Each structure stands twice: as structure tokens, then as C-alpha cells.
Automatic annotation (TrEMBL):
Region (Disordered): 82-105, 212-231
Enzyme class, UniProt record, top EC level: transferase
Ranges for domain HAMP: 202-256
Name of this protein: histidine kinase
Residue ranges of every copy of the Histidine kinase domain listed in the record: 271-488
Catalytic reactions on record: ATP + protein L-histidine = ADP + protein N-phospho-L-histidine
Pfam families linked: HATPase_c, HisKA
Keyword Kinase on entry: yes
Keyword terms: Kinase, Membrane, Phosphoprotein, Transferase, Transmembrane, Transmembrane helix, Two-component regulatory system
Subcellular location field: Cell membrane
GO molecular function, one term: kinase activity
Length: 521
């Protein structure tokens, strides 16, 4: 930029000089045309008078023509064929051989009259100059204009050419003066413009260079230092700084998610090996019994096989639950979509009725409750709530009685969907209600993996909801109450898609790690 400004000043000066030169020439040319228009009738009359053979009258006509030229040079050329004057104003015959070939005109023309500032007689002229041109000779310049006298196609009367000249120096002085002034101004303005533009560019780019130094020293892989930018009141620089901060923030988020994914994989392996050791050892013991006692009593053999089947089912349930927890820890926002919660709950209840026909199940729901959700995870949460009620929601000797309800709730500005699952079991003591959401927490004699309610808590947290355990409003048993955000326009919902950055339900104990259980008081 420091070099561009001086060049711009010099270019502007050259353009200004060219415009002034053109204007000066235009003024000269206009004056020549004006004089030519005045002289043309006089030149026509002089040619006619000369052709009629009246020397004295021709001399008078010539004097009138030359006097009317005023400050311009006049040269009248006639086609060969009449007497020639010497241009002295007295009508004297011209010397032999004085024609345009040697005296200022093309072959076949002769000078009738000439006076005033004009090129030398031997100077070469163009054949015609209907528009003013510059003629140079012996280091001098003239602006020249020619006008046909009588017309080239005239059948009668004399023919000739009237030349009008103006000294080139008439405008050269003005052009030289302007050129001198422009040169002086350019020599002063160009360095000043360069210095000024350099100073402006230096000041304008200072925040950008400062930002470059700060950003250049950052290494997200080895340092936790991040870009600290104070507003510079330069929009482009501040926008660039915010963009860099956003990029670094997203890098940190992705790095954290990568670390969590690795931690989840390690936790999955460690937890699976620990939790599967007991059922695998039990299965190994039963297999050893069957192997060592091939003649085992049929009743005992059936008991061992039932124990093997139970261990295998528990093993599969634990693996499936661990995989589901890992999926919940790694799910991303792009897996979420618009889900009809009413249809999802109805389908889950229908599956329970099909697989457990002895359960007495009541369903009350409001249709059309839609929200933004990860459908597999939300279905998993509902399935585990119902499965928990089937297993623990009955008293000895009686079938389980389960009541499921889904209704809208919350304030108009913050609507929610409320899902309740009531059972008729022994209930849960208030001091134990937080513990049931912890990993591998099982009631004595429970056939489950101890991960069902942990999955419920994880999925409700992912969906920005809450879950709490209450006493059943009527009779014994408990109520699981879930509140899920239900935006007015689920397709445009962005709050639910803001997933928790830290998710470690597989590797940490809920309620004791960096995240709390999504419960309500």
C-alpha cells in the first residue's frame, strides 16, 4: 500500500496533464475553425477574381483575406491554371516554379496568398486536414486546418484549398506551466502520500499482527492456553478473533469427546470383565458338575441346567445393558430427530402386554405429544421403566399391576411431557431412591443386571429431562415420574440438542461424578 499511493499520485498527475493538453488543443482547434469559417468566403472571392484576370481587384481581395486572418496564419492554394501572386499583398506575379510541390502544397497546386505564422513553404503538409492536425518543421510545431474552396466536384469556377495555421507554442506555454506545477506537486505529494498510507496501514494492521502473534504461539496439543482477544473496534479483526476462538473451542470439545470415547472403551472393557466374572464362574461350576457327574439325578440335572440358563440370560442382559450405556455416552446431536412420544409409549406398553400376558397394565395417554429426541435411547428408557415395574411391581402371589400415564404439563412458556409409571410392589424407601440409579445396584434376589434404571437416568439426562421416585398416590408401590422438554416446534428445537459435554455413565458412579442425577425434588 505504501508504494501504491505514490504511483496513484503520479498516475493522477499524468492523467491531469493529458486532459489539460487536450483542452488547450481543443481551444486552439475551435479558434482555427472559427477563423476558417470567416476566411472561406473571402478565399472563394479571391480565387474567382484572380481567374477573371483583374489583378488590382485580386490584390484588394488578397489584402482583405490576409487581414481577416488576424492572429492565425493563412495559406490559399489554387489548382494550376491561373496567374500566381507572391503573397506580398500587391498582386505581384509569383516567381516561376512556386507551387505546392516546392512551396507548401501537393503537386498540381500553387500558392495564391500566404501570410501569418505558418510552416516554411518547403514543409510537407498532409493532402487534407479537415480536422486540425499538428505539423512539425525545423523544431517548431503548428496546428493546421484545411478547407476545400469551391468543392472537389465543382464543374465550374476555381478550385483550391484554404489552410489555416496556429502556432503550437500558443498552447505549449500553458501546457508547460501546468506540467511544471503538476511535477512539483507530484514530487511533494507522492512521498507524503506514501508515508501517510504506510502510517495508516501500520496502524490498521497492528491489531491483526498482534492477533497473529498470539494465535501463532498457541499449540492446542501441548498447552491449555487459549486465545485471549480484547476488542479492537476493527470489525474484521474482531470477527477473525471470534472465529479462531470458536475453532479452538470446538477443537477442545472434540478432544474432550475423544478422551471420553477412549475412557468409555476402557471402562466398558474393565466393567464387563469385572461384572461378567461372577456369572461366568457360576456357569463354569455348573458345567464342571455336569461333566464330572454324567449319571446325575434328573432332578438335580434339571436344576443345574436351569441355573446355567439363568446365568446365560444374566450374562446377555449385562452385555446388552453395558453396550447401551456406551452408546448413550457416545451419541451425538445429529442422531436426534422429531419423535412422537405418545406412539413410542403405546408401542412399548404393547410389547410388555405381549411378552407378559399375566400383567395387569393400564394405559392413559394424550396423543400427539412430539419432541426432539434420540428415539432408540428414549425407547430404551421407557422399556426399562416398564421392565422394572414388571419385575418389582408385584406382591408375592399376585400379578403385577402397572399404571402408565402420559400427559402434557409445565408452563405455557416451557411445556413438558409428563410420563408416570405406577406399580403395586413393596415400594422403595426414601433413603434408597437415589441409589437405585447407580450402576449394578440390585435388590436382593433381583434377576436383573443392575443397569436398567441407570440407563433410564442416562437417557433422561441426555434429553434434558428429569426423573424422580415418589410414593404411589393410592395404595402401596412407587411412582416413577419423568419430565421431558416438549418445545412448541420440535423441528426447530436447539436446546435439547445441546448435549452434556461430559458423559461418563459407564465409567463413573451417577450422583458421585461430575454430573448429577436428573432428578426433581
Amino acid at each position: 500500500m505504501g508504494l501504491a499511493m505514490p504511483l496513484l499520485v503520479l498516475g493522477s498527475g499524468a492523467l491531469l496533464l493529458r486532459l489539460v493538453t487536450r483542452d488547450v488543443h481543443a481551444e486552439q482547434d475551435a479558434h482555427l475553425r472559427e477563423r476558417a469559417a470567416v476566411l472561406l468566403p473571402l478565399a472563394r472571392g479571391l480565387l474567382r477574381t484572380e481567374e477573371s484576370g483583374q489583378p488590382r481587384k485580386a490584390a484588394n481581395r488578397e489584402r482583405q483575406l490576409l487581414d481577416a486572418g488576424l492572429d492565425v496564419g493563412v495559406r490559399l492554394l489554387a489548382a494550376d491554371g491561373g496567374s500566381v501572386t507572391d503573397g506580398s499583398g500587391g498582386g505581384n506575379p509569383a516567381e516561376p516554379g512556386r507551387n505546392l510541390a516546392t512551396r507548401g502544397g501537393p503537386q498540381g497546386y500553387r500558392v495564391v496568398a500566404a501570410a501569418g505564422p505558418q510552416p516554411p513553404a518547403l514543409a510537407s503538409l498532409p493532402v487534407a486536414a479537415p480536422d486540425p492536425v499538428t505539423v512539425r518543421a525545423r523544431g517548431h510545431a503548428w496546428r493546421a486546418l484545411s478547407v476545400e474552396v469551391g468543392g472537389a466536384n465543382a464543374r465550374k469556377g476555381p478550385r483550391g484549398t484554404l489552410w489555416v495555421f496556429s502556432r503550437g507554442s500558443a498552447g505549449t506555454a500553458e501546457v508547460s506551466a501546468v506540467q511544471h506545477r503538476i511535477l512539483v506537486v507530484a514530487l511533494i505529494a507522492a512521498p507524503l502520500a506514501g508515508l501517510l498510507s504506510w502510517a495508516i496501514a501500520e496502524r490498521a494492521t497492528r491489531p491483526l499482527r498482534r492477533l497473529q502473534r498470539r494465535a501463532g504461539g498457541l499449540d492446542p496439543g501441548t498447552s491449555t492456553a487459549r486465545l485471549d482477544h480484547a476488542p479492537s473496534r476493527i470489525t474484521e479483526v474482531d470477527d477473525l478473533a471470534r472465529t479462531l476462538q470458536t475453532v479452538l473451542s470446538r477443537y477442545d470439545e472434540q478432544a474432550a469427546r475423544t478422551q471420553e470415547a477412549l475412557a468409555t472403551a476402557r471402562a466398558f472393557s474393565a466393567t464387563a470383565s469385572h461384572e461378567l466374572r461372577t456369572p461366568l464362574m457360576g456357569m463354569q461350576t455348573n458345567l464342571d458338575v455336569l461333566t464330572d457327574h454324567p449319571d446325575l439325578d434328573p432332578v438335580d440335572r434339571a436344576e443345574v441346567l436351569a441355573d446355567l440358563r439363568s446365568g446365560q440370560q444374566r450374562l446377555m442382559a449385562t452385555l446388552i445393558a453395558l453396550r447401551a450405556l456406551a452408546q448413550g455416552d457416545l451419541v451425538e446431536a445429529d442422531a436426534f430427530g422429531v419423535v412422537d412420544l405418545s406412539e413410542l409409549v403405546a408401542a412399548a406398553v404393547a410389547d410388555v402386554e405381549r411378552h407378559h400376558p399375566g400383567v395387569r397394565l393400564t394405559l392413559r395417554l394424550t396423543p400427539g405429544l412430539r419432541l426432539s429426541a434420540w428415539e432408540p435411547g428414549l425407547r430404551m428408557a421407557v422399556d426399562n421403566l416398564l421392565r422394572n415395574a414388571v419385575v418389582h411391581g408385584s406382591r408375592a402371589g399376585l400379578p403385577a399391576r402397572i399404571e402408565v400415564a402420559l400427559r402434557p404439563g409445565g408452563r405455557p412458556a416451557d411445556p413438558v411431557a409428563v410420563l408416570t409409571v405406577d406399580d403395586d410392589g413393596p415400594g422403595i424407601a426414601p433413603e434408597e431412591r437415589q441409589q437405585v440409579f447407580q450402576r449394578f445396584h440390585r435388590r436382593t434376589g433381583s434377576p436383573g443386571s443392575g443397569l436398567g434404571l441407570t440407563l433410564v437416568a442416562q437417557q433422561i439426562a441426555l434429553h434434558r429431562g428429569t426423573v424422580r421416585i415418589l410414593d404411589r398416590p393410592t395404595g402401596t408401590g412407587v411412582r416413577f415420574e419423568v419430565h421431558l422438554p416438549r418445545p412448541v416446534d420440535p423441528a426447530a428445537d436447539t436446546r435439547t440438542l445441546e448435549l452434556p459435554l461430559h458423559r461418563a455413565w459407564l465409567s463413573e458412579v451417577p450422583g458421585e461424578g461430575p454430573h448429577d442425577l436428573p432428578t426433581r425434588t
